[in-house]
Amino acid sequence: MTAALTQTPKAKNFQRLKALGLSVTSTIQHQGCGSKGGSGKSSCGSGAGAGDLPEEIWEKVKNHPCYSEEAHHYYARMHVAVAPACNIQCNYCNRKYDCANESRPGVVSERLTPEEAAKKVLAVASLIPQMTVLGIAGPGDPLANPDKTFKTFELVAKKAPDIKLCLSTNGLALPEYVKRIKDFNVDHVTITINMIDPEVGEKIYPWVFYKHKRYKGKEAAKILSERQLEGLEMLTAEKILCKINSVMIPGINDEHLIEVNKAVKSRGAFLHNIMPLISAPEHGTYFGLTGQRGPTAQELKALQDKCEGQMNMMRHCRQCRADAVGLLGEDRSSEFTKEKIASIEVNYDMETRKAYKMQVEQERQMRVAEREKELKEIAKENSELKILVAVATKGGGKINEHFGHAKEFQIYELSTKGSKFIGHRRVDLYCQGGYGEEDALETVIRAIRDCVAVFVAKIGSCPKEALEKAGIETVDGFAYEYIEKAALSYFKEYLRKVNAGLIHPTKKEDALIRQGALVTLN
Ligand code: CLF
Ligand code: SF4
Known about the structure:
Elements: H1 3-6, H2 9-19, H3 24-27, H4 55-61, E1 76-79, E2 88-89, H5 114-127, E3 131-136, H6 146-159, E4 164-169, H7 174-183, E5 188-192, H8 198-201, E6 207-210, E7 213-216, H9 217-237, E8 241-248, H10 256-266, E9 271-276, H11 286-290, H12 297-308, E10 313-314, E11 325-326, H13 338-342, H14 350-378, E12 387-391, E13 408-415, E14 418-426, E15 431-432, E16 435-436, H15 438-448, E17 453-455, H16 461-469, E18 473-475, H17 483-499
Parallel strand pairs: 1-3, 3-4, 4-5, 5-8, 8-9, 9-10, 12-17, 17-18
Antiparallel strand pairs: 1-11, 2-6, 6-7, 12-13, 13-14, 15-16
Helix pairs in contact: 2-14, 5-6, 7-9, 14-17
């Protein structure tokens, strides 16, 4: 009998992953964030876990990195750019802009045919077993390109039935396609809804193209809003999970998004994702050129908090490119160009993918158990204090990134109720070829100056000094530990020092949300 025949299924799975050079922690090469709801609500709304949702819903979201904050520590998504045309114009979009360093919706490097897209999906799935979701999100609107979109879904579903299909649309054409969406087993649909009032809408949308005619102003916004809400009702009636994306545009729709939140909740949306406007003159968008600003970190959080009482909020969105590949927060699209895919040997192995999922489940259980233990301790404290901390991580829910290598920091709010993931802040790399970059350090401080501490796996003495001077404590004593457990343990000690009069908490400054990659803030 050979050794292989005597192996347990678990050992075989381990070997499969090893053959690919993978483990749960090694496959995760970049950022991740919070975990399941814990303490009732220890993370954002999309952090709801197995016990917080009906079984059939949990089954749909548990491996989807956008619909479950916990899942996004472990599972990746990929987008294929098969949908170039769009049927509306948004004032924050310019699809001509193409930069491999830019990470925002609408932007892609290569457009694909459905056949090329299906091949790319299989190639990525062969090499990245944690890729569980295929999304079509542009660079235009998937439903303004229905043949290419549905052909791609058809080809992928045939060859890779375990991959979830996901669609993101502006909603104008949605009511016409709900039946096809259902027939193609697309179980997750995102609609971008920025307004329900045409007076607000006319400031966001200069035109829509509907039934062979171009409409402008309030009339255009009214048509769009009616179609979006009708499409949402039709989808939820079919039990298709719907997420609503809304772009927060200060002075235009910020307060109005509370009304949008109520309207989509009453129509059965599962999740609301309020994202900051990305707007810079170099993007060439109307808002970029007219100087429309995006929200600050505190403005965004305040609005998300207001809406959270109404329904589940997503706070871990990374506003990905329409050809993004990898965990949210990482972009491996440059590894999978048409040219590179041609040389990849496709070996789509369901068993390896199952093995990865089994490892993830074990890892998830360990994390939850550790967090629950710490939560019991912190619940004994009696304090209303809330603080924010920043965490450097490359995934797996652990503090496992060096300060100088972090491209983003994850932000957690700590209180006696638990640790709650509230967002991420993108930054310039501090460590450039072995040297600390002073300008980059400035951007990091501006991005996390609302935090009391930053947790890292390692940090040099220069940045440590500068951060502490800016009132941000550096914490490297929890390197490679689970984030929530470490953060709560830190918070317990912080409270002890406050009670002993050793620390006097003061109001922190607001932080800046980065307006797109590689743009230096002034
Ligand atoms: Fe893509 Fe969107 Fe599906 Fe996710 S993204 S189509 S739901 S698989 Fe996710 Fe990216 Fe945010 Fe979108 S982080 S922009 S919410
Ligand atoms: Fe751009 Fe999407 Fe708006 Fe179309 S719907 S203009 S692709 S952001």
